[in-house]
Amino acid sequence: MLKFLSYLLNLVKPTQFNSWQTFNGLAVLFFITSVFSQGFFREVLAYAGFICISVGLTWVGLEKSWPWTPWLTSALICLFIHDLIKIDIQPLLLAWLPLAASLAVIPYAVDQDLHWHLPKRESRQFLVILFGSQILLTCWIQFFFILQSWLVMYPSLFVDDFGESMFVRQVELGSLVLPRSVPLLGQLRPAIELQLSNQDWGTMERWLQGLYHTPYQMPDFVEPALDRAEWERIAEDDFWQVTAIASPQLDPPNTYQLRWDAQWQGPRSRSAAENSPYDAYLICSIRQQNQVSVVDCDEVQLVNPPTDQKPTPFLPMSR
Amino acid sequence: MAEIFTWVVIPIPIIIFQLLALLFSIAIEAYIFSRQLLLTHRECIQYSAAINLLSAIAVWLFGFVMQVFLPPQAKLQLISYILLGRFYDIQNQTLFNFVIVALLLFLFFLVCFVEFKGLGFLEIIFSQWPELKTDEERLQFWQRLIAAITYTDPEKITAIFWANAASNSVILLVLLIAVLQYYA
């Protein structure tokens, strides 16, 4: 413990005034004082500490000639800007590598007396390739962000299997992702229960008998219901087809089952064409009580719930 | 922003593929330059690496710009192909094939053009620069820059064309072997 403390002290203790240890020590001092101060003063002290630690770390890198010093400094500058003006992380991640390459030029282009000159011929060739590689890496980062923006437009695609893609693989962080059919039918459920309840039983029966054999699309029912539920519209909504089909139940008599299906009509992989991980259904039973109808709906369920993964807390498996 | 990072899709396969393709094309194009242009071996590798990086960046930038301006139907096809590996519900197969072939040809010529102009600029960048103290020297330098933009050296452009054709053929051949292995 003591040894470790003395090691830390050596790391911070300046050997001479004009050295990186001064800056690191100052940074520690600023951070400690900022913890004990309040409000505006605290932020100023924290920023001062951050600047000191950036200068200190860059100085260490230059003194020990770590090859990755420009990347470290560039990352620290980007972090500082991120904290200072609360800018989005995407442009900063994109700026990080080109900025590092620009910083890497400085030792080749500035001489001892801080005069700018052109890099030498041999180092120019190296620098061109350095810049090219950093910008190519930036292109990959940008491609990552574009993929994410596509998945914000079509979030349900994430339940599909990307194994056939030549470009991407999916990584699951944390909870299992549900296709949007589940919240879609979940939003429709109160509307169904409200609109089909307390209707005249004779009209209700005739309407249900009209829905017997084939699934019917009901845009004039679904669209207003979604509007009322303030359903957030995104690009993939065009691919969700909601249908309903009714069937008579024998036990108990004089009840009907109304099954609502949300089916994905959009692009899907070959394996998804077989096991349809997108689709979900909702089963409502409609019965008669005092000449009016009463509707009870179950929870929304996936047609093919994922089996090998752990069950989600969102879906109580009632059947 | 937090919502985006709960699901992550990482472009690892295309990164590995691009690295391998770059290795192949840098080696092949350097070999062809060493035979057709009067350059040393070291210079060949450096020029070839630099212009291949440049053309890879140009293709990416073209893709980024294109995906913004694509009509929604075509963009959906692009998303479907990139994420799921297959196109979605193509109505007009002939037109579709025509568009794909035209796009690939356009990309090939874009790469050739970028590499050709890149080579011109790299020659200026890598050469001994004048001091740029007097007006005359500045004028000469500008003339060289303008010449690099406008002048077309037939020998260089054929070298680049054949180098690209060879490297792309080899990459296609490797892909074909990989695909055949996959189906066998």
Number of strands of chain A: 7
Q: How many domains, in number, for the residues of chain B?
A: 1
- Put simply, the count of helices of chain A is 10
Total strands of chain B: 1
* Strand residue content of chain A: 5-15%
Strand content of chain B: under 5%
Mean pLDDT of chain B: 85
Shape descriptor of chain B reads globular
Question: If you average the pLDDT of chain A, what whole number results?
Answer: 81
Radius of gyration of chain A: 32 Å
Task: Enumerate the spans of chain A where pLDDT stays under 50 for 5 or more consecutive residues.
Answer: 310-319
From N to C, what is the helix and strand string of chain B? EHHHHHH
**What structural class is derived from the secondary structure elements of chain B?**
mainly alpha
Report the principal-axis shape of chain A: elongated
User: What radius of gyration of chain B results from the CA coordinates?
Assistant: 20 Å
Textual characterization of the structure:
- The complex is a heterodimer of chains A (319) and B (184).
- Chain A has helices at residues 2-12, 20-36, 39-64, 69-85, 89-109, 121-153, 181-196, 201-209, 219-228, 270-275, and strands at 169-172, 216-217, 240-249, 255-264, 280-289, 292-297, 301-302.
- Chain A is α+β, with helices and mostly antiparallel strands and 319 residues long.
- Chain A has two domains: 2-153, no CATH class; 181-302, no CATH class.
- In chain A, helix 2 (20-36) runs antiparallel to helix 3 and helix 3 runs antiparallel to helix 4.
- The two termini of chain A are 59 Å apart.
- The model of chain A is unreliable at 310-319 (pLDDT under 50).
- Chain B is an all-alpha fold and 184 residues long.
- In chain B, helix 2 (41-69) packs across helix 4 (93-126).
- Chain B is globular and about 65 Å long.
- Chain B has one domain (15-121, 138-183).
- Classes of the chains: A alpha+beta (319), B mainly alpha (184).
- Chains A and B meet through helix 6 and strand 1 of A and strand 1, helix 1, helix 2, helix 3 and helix 4 of B.
